[in-house]
Every structure is written in C-alpha cells, then in structure tokens.
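Handout, section B. The chain below has 162 residues.
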Amino acid sequence: MEYILIAFALLASITLLLLFKLIIVEKKVNVLVKLLSNYPRIVERLSKRIEAKRKVRKRYIVFEVISNCKLSSEELSREVSSKVMELLGRRGVAEIGYRFLFFDEKLNMGIVRSTNRAYKLMIGILGLIRKIDDCSILIIPVSVHTTLNKAYEKIRELGKTK
C-alpha cells in the first residue's frame, strides 16, 4: 500500500512538472506569436530608421536644350525654378536640393543639382518644361553625375562632338 501511495505521489509530481513545463512553453509560444505578428511593423520601423540615416548626397544632372530660338541662362533658370516651385512648393524644393548651376548658351547644355533621393523626380520635372515665353523647347537629360567636375567634363566632351 505504501508503494502505491509513493508511486501515486511520484506520478502526481511528474504530472505537475510536465504541466508547468507545458505552461512555460505555451508562454514562450505566445511571446513568439506576438513577435511574429509585429514583424511587419518592426521591419517597417527599422527600414524607416535605416532610410533616415542614409546620407543625402548631391547629384548633378547634365541636360541639353533643343529650341527653335536663342535662350539665355536667366530665362531658362527662371522657368525651371518656377516649374519646380509650382510642382513641389517651397518645402519640396528644399527637400530635393534643387539648384540651377550652369547653362552654356552656345552648346545649349546645362547642369542642375539635386539629391540622390530625388534626382529622378528632377529629371521628370525637366521633361515637363515645353515653353519659355513664345519659344517651344525640349529639355533632354543627358547624364547624371556624382561630382560637378564630371558633369563639366561631360559637357566639354559633348561640346567637342558638336
């Protein structure tokens, strides 16, 4: 009879231990389920942090202007600036880092500056400009460079071929 009671007590303690382990495992599973359900949000937050830390760098866009009349640098600069301001506003202009840098009236080629995050947007805006005063124009982006010297080199190279 004693052996039966001891065996029963031993069986009860083993059952309790298994039950506790099961509860612990269940809690760990619940924690994992919560983590996995938050996984998309966690990834989104981390990607936003990484994007925010990514350094903003300058990009120089070389463009060519095809026109039926002679354009001055001031006219083109004013028109490009007004188009950028019209489409993006002051804050947008600041965010894309827009600046009209150079225009050679003989070669009809120029350079605008933007950031690495928004240079494609800047190329799109250049393509939207179709008229200055009564002159119809077409702005064709030629290349994008990381340094201003490379952009000037490209203009010189294309100027020799004309």
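Note. The domain at 58-161 is CATH 3.30.70.3250 (Alpha-Beta Plaits). Compare this with the example in section A.
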